[in-house]
Amino acid sequence: MKYIKNPSEIEVKSFEIIQGIIDEIRPGYEFKNEIEEKIIKRCIHTTADFEYLDILKISDRAVDKLVDALKSGATVYTDTNMALSGINKRKLKALGCEIKCFVADEEVAKIAKEKKMTRSMAAVEKAASEEGRKIFVMGNAPTALYKVMEMKKEGKLNPDAIIGVPVGFVGAAESKDELEKSDNEYILAKGRKGGSNLAAAIVNAVLYSI
Amino acid sequence: MKYIKNPSEIEVKSFEIIQGIIDEIRPGYEFKNEIEEKIIKRCIHTTADFEYLDILKISDRAVDKLVDALKSGATVYTDTNMALSGINKRKLKALGCEIKCFVADEEVAKIAKEKKMTRSMAAVEKAASEEGRKIFVMGNAPTALYKVMEMKKEGKLNPDAIIGVPVGFVGAAESKDELEKSDNEYILAKGRKGGSNLAAAIVNAVLYSI
């Protein structure tokens, strides 16, 4: 069986094919700017789903805030270990950033049970108790995304930016509509689609632009 | 902000909504059997993408082989740490199964460099060198999927079943077409779509059915 075995060759070729398909299915489609192009194309690269041309929304200062926070050693908090797994840790480490996911933390499980909230929500409370600049990356749990927005409103949390791409049928679309209306800097996917893989792809696209 | 915070309630409600949407967009759609229904619905649950109604293909004996292997303490080999992260380890452990991903293994990196192959391919070689029954779960790397099929043909590897859902634009669709034509038991997604999240969802659907 003959197939391309060089990873960097595969990646370059993939992005060429993606542009070719965009030219075909959406002639004249224009990205707002170079970084938005990179983010959306990486979302398509990760999902093979061209709907991200339409549903990915990036607030005006989101990328600047993300880049500034990442250059300043912010901590990245994810709602799943899957999202954490997919994010380029080598790049983060080189920038002096940490990445954490508290969802499987024993203390968090205990708090969630006591307070009758999801573990994802309790994980946000734990993140909020830590020092330093924060980026939240939510690919799974609408409850966690709501919790970040609630704590921000209550003055208990001040994230630099939120990657808000929970996937699903209960609360996911609604949570992202809330995020779009909020005063947070965000990258989000409208509607039901999203996921941990998408969340990781978005963070990586920003990391690779630095 | 009001939203459902009970995880099991969210899951039950999600699957009701998924069935409702299927009734609406595909009236009269019939799943082949109960386990196929569970697998496809969990794929939709994970991606919010109803295309999986059409593109997910399950070979006749795939589920039986998967269940038998899992009940016999097989080892699950994934091509990414993301897929590994998403698979229910508590369930696997209860069945006496191990799960491994060698892609970030130092020895594998060395072999890949020497043999000029991808790390994913070298990871398959390492898996093949181990004893015991094997399930391969490929959500990312067509090269790894080809490698499993090659080694099977050469008599160097005898997987019980292959979850073959690499996503992407270079080799992904082709690798899955090969898998469909092969004599392996498979669960695959036709075309470009797939991913580590999907791979994990499929394994979990089978695990939850045991």
TrEMBL record, chains A, B:
UniProt keyword list: Cobalamin biosynthesis, Isomerase
Domain Cobalamin biosynthesis precorrin-8X methylmutase CobH/CbiC as annotated: residue spans: 9-208
A GO molecular-function descriptor: cobalt-precorrin-8 methylmutase activity
EC number per UniProt: 5.4.99.60
Listed pathway(s): Cofactor biosynthesis; adenosylcobalamin biosynthesis
Domain of life: Bacteria
Family named by the database record: Belongs to the CobH/CbiC family.
Protein name: Cobalt-precorrin-8 methylmutase
Annotated source species: Tepidibacter hydrothermalis
